[in-house]
């Protein structure tokens, strides 16, 4: 179900202006990262961003993991057609080859870097294009020396937004993270601080208001996928 808050933003469909592909890589800048506001929770995943703050051109996210069970170990965080403001989904990134961001695990609150070296996280850019989640390849980060940073990138050359290509509408975009071995994390929970930085030299996806026409198209798109099975 769509979030009715989006209906407060009434703009013409020309808001679907495509990014100009001056580079082969597209990324989320600070404003795009700060606009992320939706958790994909079809599996009742419990981790949440409890604070997000700009840090230069980057954003620091404090992610709370309530425990170390399966549902406590993974988070999909993005801008979505299904909820939140959805200010990134109207972009067309079909002219790019890769979607990339830089991740750095700054620390685990209450633990020294050495104490938390076994608290490893897999991080990845994430796009949901209407068929399935695409969040590969993931990269491993930890507080161990030399392992705190990673720059995973995913192939987006076949993805598009809006009405560029039937079946390839971007429904969610953001990032995914999950514990490498949940049993090595505290059963009582932990808060990880993650610095996310746009890829250097890449074009940045800029948040845009969502139009009613786009929402109408999105509704018809989803209904058509439910009514008309693939051959």
TrEMBL record:
Signal peptide limits: 1-23
Top-level taxon: Bacteria
Keywords, sorted A to Z: Signal
Keyword Signal in annotation: yes
Protein name (Swiss-Prot/TrEMBL): PEP-CTERM protein-sorting domain-containing protein
């Amino acid at each position: 179900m769509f979030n009715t808050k989006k209906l407060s933003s009434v703009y013409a469909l020309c808001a679907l202006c495509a990014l100009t592909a001056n580079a082969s890589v597209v990324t989320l800048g600070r404003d795009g990262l700060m606009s992320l506001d939706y958790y994909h929770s079809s599996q009742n995943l419990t981790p949440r961003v409890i604070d997000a703050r700009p840090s230069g051109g980057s954003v620091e996210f404090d992610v709370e993991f309530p425990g170390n069970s399966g549902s406590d170990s993974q988070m999909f965080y993005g801008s979505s057609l299904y909820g939140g403001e959805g200010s990134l989904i109207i972009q067309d990134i079909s002219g790019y080859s890769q979607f990339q961001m830089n991740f750095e695990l700054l620390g685990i609150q209450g633990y020294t870097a050495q104490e938390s070296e076994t608290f490893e996280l897999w991080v990845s850019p994430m796009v949901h294009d209407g068929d399935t989640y695409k969040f590969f390849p993931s990269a491993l980060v930890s507080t161990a020396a030399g392992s705190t940073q990673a720059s995973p990138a995913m192939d987006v050359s076949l993805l598009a937004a809006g009405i560029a290509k039937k079946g390839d509408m971007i429904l969610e975009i953001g990032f995914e993270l999950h514990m490498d071995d949940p049993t090595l994390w505290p059963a009582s929970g932990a808060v990880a601080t993650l610095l996310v930085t746009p890829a250097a030299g890449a074009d940045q996806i800029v948040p845009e208001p969502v139009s009613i026409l786009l929402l109408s198209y999105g509704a018809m798109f989803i209904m058509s996928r439910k009514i008309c099975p693939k051959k």
